[in-house]
Amino acid sequence: MKRIRLSDLRANGTRRPPGYYDAVVAMGVIEGEQLTLSNEAYTELCQRFASPTDSLTLTVDATIAKTRYEICKTCNKSSESGFKCALHKGCCFGDWRAIPANKCPEGRW
Question: Which of 9, 30, 50, 101 has the least CB density, counted as fewest CB within 10 Å?
């Protein structure tokens, strides 16, 4: 399960194709200011909104993001909401974790 604050989703949606925000919200469940997505919905959205030039690297990036996400879930520097890193702003929705060159501020990955 992925949990995302709606305010973060709105902010990140400005960098995405038209219809992104509505599509993400439609595939999740809203509870207060949180959106919860199943892992399957998250994967489908990643594939749906990847640019054509990203299609070759999507699997690698998604695998890296998932592996790093699992590590982040065990870290005491992560918040419950999507396991955002307290030491790095902008880690929401795996964007930052999915870039192979990025490094964990705690050196965990």
Answer: 101
